[in-house]
Design goal:
The protein is α/β, with parallel strands linked by helices. The protein has a single domain, classed as TIM Barrel (Alpha-Beta Barrel). It contains ten helices and nine strands. The two termini are 18 Å apart. Pathway: Carbohydrate acid metabolism; 2-dehydro-3-deoxy-D-gluconate degradation; D-glyceraldehyde 3-phosphate and pyruvate from 2-dehydro-3-deoxy-D-gluconate: step 2/2. Belongs to the KHG/KDPG aldolase family. Homotrimer.
Length: 214
């Protein structure tokens, strides 16, 4: 594991849960981040799924210094460069093309490419990424699939995301090759829309108390 990957793995391990944030309105960014941090959730993945994503990430970095902000849904080298330009602490992709893996390997940004199969994991490993995002986790065979990958790839570490929530997060975190889990259940869209920040903080508090670091 490279030093960069080791530090990234340690960061995710300490975080336990990485909330996947799809921010529709720029004005929600800072109160949402503050609500998550207040609940003990500091490592945040802001996805590039909305037009305001980059501005939202910048607003969080500027106004919520306790938050560790990364960029998710990185699909190509341009997205990676945008994440680097704003000073994101890490990058995460749902999958990986050879071009993206090459760009990420040449970049200084801690990065977790998305994989769902053995072949995709082999590509990631070949580019020096032994920490990957297993996505979509439940839909790709769940914990059984992850255990199957552990045999031929004993050094690979994963942040499973997709179909993970309050009911099954602990089971995923109990797997020895899992460093953290990702999910959007800590910040339900309805709560964000209605500004139920106290509800989000309470949910984070509950999750952090019940989930132990992997």
């Amino acid at each position: 594991m490279t030093v960069r990957q080791e530090k990234f793995a340690a960061l995710l391990k300490s975080a336990v849960v990485i909330p996947v944030l799809t921010i529709e309105r720029i004005e929600d960014a800072v109160p949402l981040a503050k609500a998550l941090v207040a609940g003990g959730v500091r490592v945040l993945e802001v996805t590039l799924r909305t037009p305001v994503a980059i501005e939202a990430a910048k607003a969080i970095m500027a106004n919520v210094p306790e938050a560790v902000v990364g960029i998710g849904t990185i699909l190509n080298g341009d997205d990676l460069a945008r994440a680097e330009d704003i000073g994101a602490r890490f990058g995460i992709s749902p999958g990986a093309t050879p071009e993206l893996l090459k760009a990420a390997a040449a970049s200084a940004l801690p990065f977790a490419p998305g994989i769902a199969t053995a072949s995709e994991l082999m590509q990631a490993l070949a580019h020096g990424f032994n920490l990957t995002k297993f996505f979509p986790a439940e839909q790709s065979g769940g914990i059984k699939a992850l255990r199957a990958l552990a045999g031929p790839f004993p050094d690979a570490r994963f942040c499973p995301t997709g179909g993970i929530g309050e009911a099954n997060a602990a089971a995923w975190l109990a797997e020895p090759n899992v460093v953290a889990v990702g999910g959007s259940w800590l910040c339900p869209a309805a709560d964000v829309r209605s500004g139920n920040w106290a509800g989000i903080t309470a949910m984070c508090n509950r999750a952090m108390k019940s989930l132990k670091p992997a």
